[in-house]
Design goal:
By secondary structure, this protein is mainly alpha-helical. It is built from 19 helices and no strands. It is globular, with a radius of gyration of 24 Å. Keywords: Cell membrane, Membrane, Transmembrane, Transmembrane helix.
Length: about 500
């Protein structure tokens, strides 16, 4: 059965995207497990800190992309599918020109901010020359690489996103091997710069090669530049940028709120106890996101009904997977947090319940909002996302004052429940050409069952017998875990529907 599923996934672009997506996630985890201890062994604590903060600071500067590289796929998909070479050339010229300009902007602002960055972190005099080389080199490498991001849009609308995953796996290992070799050769912080340059160059050239290998020839032409397309591009990309920025702000403010209201000592427990949410969400999201390139093609071709049919069948097993993930967080987050971060770094059972509820809400939001980017109508969703973010921050501050870390999760739940979820139920069905009752009918029952199961498990777990002193799971936790495993067997049997007969989801 496992072999049959693997062969079925391997035989289609969507299946390959799912498989390579999980492989890329595993590769990132393994590379991280090697690179951090390696750096700590060869670098001083100050050099390691420089290595870390340069990467984080550069991430904020690269937000100047304004979502253009992610918008490329939606702008290019129609002319690429229609074989309209003139329209494709025009869009390609606009997108690459904008990315080149943004690359110059990143380089200019990055070099202008060099003294501020160096002085902000109060480095020792001995480390300042290395910091200047590292920061300047990374700015230059990423500015040059920015226009090559346009190739990701071509691969996406060709439904060849699995190529990107494979390239990312290869280049991450190129980075690690080069980093290790250069550290052994005594290059210290410069090892990060050279290794990053090699991996980014390999990534860019491989993307270009794979696009050209597909038979797609893309040319830049000054006469093909269209200012109307430029306005369309920025209307779309600015919405994506604001949504990403809102998500980043809400994520960043969580630790700030905890540190300010509760105290810095509570930040570690919050971060550790929240880790399981990120892990489970990534596991569930990878499967869903593999369908996005195909659905974008179907939407552009006008086949909304097929998108709805596939979404409905996909959610029939993906919602139970999210439900089991939420129950798993509630049952085992105490043990996971104490094992992962120490006995003092588990907040409470109430925190686990709210974390599980947050996963359930995010599953619906992430797996329904996809319709707005593919329809190129994201203004309303952008406003809803910003409103959601504001409410999360405001309610998070208020409830943290009253209930501590668990209160912050109450606040971050209220924002989506008051804004994002209602907006999606009202607007998403229209984009797919279905009734609101049809979409609600697909999600109300499983969500009602999920919340009922979470509440029941919470009361069972909220007893002294279910909460031993150490991290080892109690008998009650083991018993509930066996029940969850039984649900997993049922889910797996339902999962087989995807790979049998006419009812299977087209992948």
């Amino acid at each position: 059965m496992i072999l049959a599923i693997f062969q079925r996934l391997r035989s289609s672009p969507t299946g390959l995207t799912a498989l390579t997506g999980y492989a890329a996630m595993l590769s990132t985890l393994v590379v991280g497990l090697f690179s951090v201890p390696l750096a700590l062994h060869f670098l001083t604590n100050e050099e390691f800190g420089l290595w870390s903060v340069v990467g984080q600071s550069l991430g904020y500067l690269l937000l100047l992309d304004f979502g253009v590289s992610w918008s490329a796929s939606r702008m290019l998909v129609a002319p690429l599918r229609e074989g309209n070479l003139e329209e494709l050339e025009s869009w390609w010229t606009v997108i690459v020109t904008v990315l080149c300009f943004q690359g110059l902007l990143v380089a200019g602002l990055g070099f202008a901010a060099t003294d501020y960055i160096i002085n902000f972190f109060k480095l020792s005099k001995e480390l300042i020359p290395a910091a200047e080389i590292l920061w300047g080199g990374m700015i230059l490498i990423n500015a040059i690489q920015l226009p090559f991001r346009a190739y990701t849009g071509i691969l996406y609308c060709q439904d060849r996103w699995y190529v990107m995953h494979l390239i990312s796996i290869l280049t991450s290992w190129i980075n690690l091997i080069a980093f290790a070799a250069l550290l052994l050769a005594g290059y210290r912080t410069s090892a990060y710069l050279v290794a990053s340059g090699l991996s980014i160059a390999a990534n860019s050239l491989l993307m270009r090669h794979m696009v050209r290998k597909s038979g797609t020839r893309l040319r830049l032409s000054r006469r093909a530049f269209d200012f109307d397309k430029l306005r369309v591009l920025f209307r779309y990309s600015s919405g994506l940028f604001l949504l990403a920025l809102a998500a980043q702000i809400t994520f960043m403010t969580q630790s700030i709120i905890i540190g300010k209201v509760v105290g810095l000592g509570a930040v570690a427990a919050f971060v550790v106890s929240s880790k399981s949410l990120a892990v489970v969400m990534q596991l569930v999201k990878r499967a869903f996101e593999s369908f996005s390139p195909r659905w974008m093609q179907l939407y552009v071709s006008g086949d909304k009904q097929e998108i709805w049919n596939q979404w409905r069948r996909l959610m029939a097993w993906l919602l139970p997977a999210g439900m089991m993930g939420a129950l798993g967080i509630l049952i085992f987050n105490r043990s996971f947090s104490m094992l992962y971060g120490g006995a003092e770094n588990h907040v409470s059972r109430l925190f686990d319940l709210l974390l599980a509820g947050g996963l359930v809400a995010q599953v619906f939001i992430n797996f329904t909002s996809f319709v707005f980017p593919i329809s190129a109508r994201i203004k309303g969703w952008c406003l809803a996302g910003l409103g959601d973010a504001v409410l999360q921050v405001v309610f998070g501050i208020l409830f943290t004052r009253w209930y501590g870390s668990a209160g912050l999760l109450v606040g971050t739940l209220l924002g989506p429940l008051l804004v994002s979820v209602p907006y999606l139920l009202l607007k998403a069905p229209g984009e797919l050409g279905i009734s609101r009752r049809a979409m609600a009918g697909e999600v109300v029952r499983p969500y009602a069952l999920t919340f009922a199961a979470l509440i029941a498990c919470f009361f069972i777990l909220n007893t002294p017998a279910a909460t031993p002193a150490g991290w080892w799971p109690s008998n009650i936790e083991f018993l509930l875990g066996f029940g969850l495993a039984a649900l997993g067997v049922i889910w797996f049997c339902k999962f087989r529907v995807l790979f049998s007969g006419a009812k299977r989801v087209e992948i």
